[in-house]
Amino acid sequence: RLHATDVTSSSFRLLWPKLLSQETGYYTLEYAPTADPAGKRTQQVSGAHTSLVLSDLAPETTYEVALIPESNVHYFPPQTTRVMTLAEEISPVQVLISESGPRSFHVSWAPVPDSVVSYQVLYGPLPGNSAKVLEVDGRHNSTVVEHLAPNTTYLVTVTAVYRSGKEKSLSAKACTQEGERG
Protein backbone atom coordinates (compact mmCIF):
# COMPACT_ATOMS: atom_id res chain seq x y z
CA ARG A 1 0.00 0.00 0.00
CA LEU A 2 1.04 3.53 -0.78
CA HIS A 3 1.74 5.51 2.38
CA ALA A 4 3.61 8.59 3.58
CA THR A 5 6.33 9.09 6.18
CA ASP A 6 8.59 11.99 7.23
CA VAL A 7 5.75 14.48 6.94
CA THR A 8 6.75 18.14 7.45
CA SER A 9 4.99 21.43 6.73
CA SER A 10 6.23 21.45 3.12
CA SER A 11 7.12 17.88 2.17
CA PHE A 12 6.56 14.18 2.72
CA ARG A 13 8.06 10.91 1.58
CA LEU A 14 5.89 8.39 -0.25
CA LEU A 15 6.62 4.68 0.03
CA TRP A 16 5.04 1.90 -1.98
CA PRO A 17 5.55 -1.83 -2.57
CA LYS A 18 7.77 -2.93 -5.40
CA LEU A 19 5.27 -3.54 -8.19
CA LEU A 20 7.45 -2.85 -11.23
CA SER A 21 11.10 -3.05 -12.15
CA GLN A 22 13.26 -0.88 -14.36
CA GLU A 23 12.36 -3.08 -17.33
CA THR A 24 8.62 -3.56 -16.81
CA GLY A 25 7.41 0.02 -16.65
CA TYR A 26 7.24 3.27 -14.72
CA TYR A 27 4.95 5.04 -12.28
CA THR A 28 2.87 8.14 -12.83
CA LEU A 29 2.40 10.06 -9.64
CA GLU A 30 -0.40 12.58 -9.37
CA TYR A 31 -1.00 14.78 -6.36
CA ALA A 32 -3.22 17.76 -5.62
CA PRO A 33 -4.63 19.59 -2.60
CA THR A 34 -8.07 18.14 -1.78
CA ALA A 35 -9.49 21.65 -1.78
CA ASP A 36 -7.96 22.50 -5.15
CA PRO A 37 -8.04 19.52 -7.56
CA ALA A 38 -7.12 21.89 -10.40
CA GLY A 39 -3.73 22.38 -8.76
CA LYS A 40 -2.78 18.82 -9.66
CA ARG A 41 0.88 18.05 -10.32
CA THR A 42 2.12 14.99 -12.17
CA GLN A 43 5.48 13.29 -11.99
CA GLN A 44 6.93 10.23 -13.67
CA VAL A 45 9.06 7.87 -11.64
CA SER A 46 11.23 5.02 -12.83
CA GLY A 47 9.94 1.50 -12.18
CA ALA A 48 13.00 0.83 -10.03
CA HIS A 49 11.82 3.29 -7.35
CA THR A 50 9.76 2.44 -4.28
CA SER A 51 9.88 5.88 -2.67
CA LEU A 52 9.87 9.55 -3.53
CA VAL A 53 9.96 12.82 -1.61
CA LEU A 54 7.36 15.41 -2.61
CA SER A 55 8.41 18.90 -1.60
CA ASP A 56 7.38 22.51 -2.14
CA LEU A 57 3.96 21.78 -0.63
CA ALA A 58 1.60 24.07 1.26
CA PRO A 59 1.46 23.79 5.07
CA GLU A 60 -1.64 22.40 6.84
CA THR A 61 -3.03 21.07 3.56
CA THR A 62 -4.49 17.67 2.76
CA TYR A 63 -3.17 16.18 -0.48
CA GLU A 64 -4.78 13.44 -2.54
CA VAL A 65 -2.02 11.29 -3.95
CA ALA A 66 -2.39 8.66 -6.68
CA LEU A 67 0.36 6.32 -7.82
CA ILE A 68 -0.42 4.74 -11.18
CA PRO A 69 1.81 1.80 -12.17
CA GLU A 70 2.27 1.94 -15.95
CA SER A 71 3.27 -1.64 -16.63
CA ASN A 72 3.83 -3.27 -19.98
CA VAL A 73 3.32 -6.71 -18.41
CA HIS A 74 0.44 -6.62 -15.89
CA TYR A 75 -2.36 -4.26 -15.01
CA PHE A 76 -1.99 -2.81 -11.53
CA PRO A 77 -4.76 -0.67 -10.04
CA PRO A 78 -3.75 2.85 -8.98
CA GLN A 79 -2.76 3.19 -5.35
CA THR A 80 -4.14 6.23 -3.55
CA THR A 81 -3.59 7.89 -0.21
CA ARG A 82 -4.31 11.16 1.58
CA VAL A 83 -1.60 13.05 3.37
CA MET A 84 -1.93 16.17 5.49
CA THR A 85 1.11 18.42 5.84
CA LEU A 86 1.94 19.88 9.23
CA ALA A 87 1.35 23.44 10.33
CA GLU A 88 4.21 25.68 9.40
CA GLU A 89 6.49 26.29 12.34
CA ILE A 90 7.78 29.77 11.96
CA SER A 91 10.11 31.34 14.43
CA PRO A 92 9.26 34.71 15.90
CA VAL A 93 10.37 37.13 13.16
CA GLN A 94 10.59 40.17 15.36
CA VAL A 95 11.23 40.79 19.01
CA LEU A 96 10.59 44.36 20.15
CA ILE A 97 11.81 45.89 23.37
CA SER A 98 9.89 48.91 24.62
CA GLU A 99 9.05 50.91 27.75
CA SER A 100 12.54 50.42 29.04
CA GLY A 101 13.15 51.68 32.60
CA PRO A 102 15.94 51.20 35.14
CA ARG A 103 14.48 47.96 36.49
CA SER A 104 12.14 46.63 33.81
CA PHE A 105 11.30 46.54 30.13
CA HIS A 106 8.49 45.31 27.95
CA VAL A 107 9.11 42.51 25.42
CA SER A 108 6.75 41.78 22.53
CA TRP A 109 7.04 39.51 19.52
CA ALA A 110 5.32 38.51 16.30
CA PRO A 111 3.84 36.56 14.70
CA VAL A 112 1.72 34.48 17.12
CA PRO A 113 0.72 31.30 15.18
CA ASP A 114 -2.02 29.00 16.49
CA SER A 115 0.34 26.06 16.67
CA VAL A 116 2.38 27.60 19.50
CA VAL A 117 1.66 26.18 22.96
CA SER A 118 3.82 28.62 24.88
CA TYR A 119 6.68 31.08 24.63
CA GLN A 120 9.75 31.04 26.79
CA VAL A 121 11.38 34.39 27.38
CA LEU A 122 14.97 33.90 28.45
CA TYR A 123 16.83 36.96 29.70
CA GLY A 124 20.16 37.64 31.35
CA PRO A 125 22.78 40.37 31.62
CA LEU A 126 25.61 40.57 29.08
CA PRO A 127 28.23 39.37 29.54
CA GLY A 128 27.25 36.59 31.88
CA ASN A 129 25.34 33.35 32.02
CA SER A 130 22.83 33.93 34.80
CA ALA A 131 19.75 33.81 32.61
CA LYS A 132 16.19 33.59 33.93
CA VAL A 133 13.16 32.22 32.11
CA LEU A 134 9.59 33.50 31.93
CA GLU A 135 6.92 31.17 30.55
CA VAL A 136 4.19 32.95 28.56
CA ASP A 137 0.94 31.47 27.28
CA GLY A 138 0.95 30.79 23.51
CA ARG A 139 -1.96 33.19 22.94
CA HIS A 140 -0.01 36.16 24.25
CA ASN A 141 2.58 38.16 22.37
CA SER A 142 4.17 40.25 25.10
CA THR A 143 5.38 40.26 28.67
CA VAL A 144 7.08 42.58 31.15
CA VAL A 145 10.49 41.62 32.51
CA GLU A 146 11.10 43.08 35.99
CA HIS A 147 13.60 43.19 38.88
CA LEU A 148 16.49 44.08 36.62
CA ALA A 149 19.74 45.93 37.27
CA PRO A 150 19.93 49.54 36.02
CA ASN A 151 22.21 50.58 33.17
CA THR A 152 22.74 46.99 32.04
CA THR A 153 22.53 45.31 28.65
CA TYR A 154 20.38 42.19 28.58
CA LEU A 155 20.15 39.49 25.97
CA VAL A 156 16.50 38.47 25.50
CA THR A 157 15.64 35.27 23.63
CA VAL A 158 12.04 34.44 22.78
CA THR A 159 11.48 30.75 22.04
CA ALA A 160 8.23 29.52 20.51
CA VAL A 161 7.33 26.01 21.69
CA TYR A 162 5.09 24.26 19.15
CA ARG A 163 2.51 21.51 19.70
CA SER A 164 4.80 19.18 17.79
CA GLY A 165 7.48 19.75 20.43
CA LYS A 166 9.70 21.73 18.08
CA GLU A 167 11.16 25.02 19.24
CA LYS A 168 12.23 28.10 17.30
CA SER A 169 13.98 31.13 18.78
CA LEU A 170 14.90 34.72 18.12
CA SER A 171 17.04 37.03 20.25
CA ALA A 172 17.25 40.77 20.82
CA LYS A 173 19.29 43.03 23.09
CA ALA A 174 17.74 45.38 25.63
CA CYS A 175 19.33 48.05 27.79
CA THR A 176 17.89 49.20 31.10
CA GLN A 177 18.17 52.89 31.89
CA GLU A 178 20.39 54.42 34.50
CA GLY A 179 18.89 54.41 37.97
CA GLU A 180 18.43 57.47 40.13
CA ARG A 181 21.68 58.64 41.68
CA GLY A 182 21.86 59.17 45.41
TrEMBL record:
InterPro entries: ECM_Regulatory_Proteins, FN3_dom, FN3_sf, Ig-like_fold
Keywords assigned: Glycoprotein, Repeat, Secreted, Signal
SUPFAM superfamilies membership: Fibronectin type III
Transmembrane segments: none
One Pfam family linked to the record: fn3
UniProt xrefs under CDD domains: FN3
Subcellular location: Secreted, Extracellular space
Residue intervals of the Fibronectin type-III domain: 1-89, 91-179
Gene3D superfamilies attached to this UniProt entry: Immunoglobulins
Main subcellular location: secreted
GO-annotated cellular components: extracellular region
Protein name: VWA1 protein
Natural source organism: Gymnorhina tibicen
Lineage: Eukaryota, Metazoa, Chordata, Craniata, Vertebrata
Gene name of this polypeptide: Vwa1
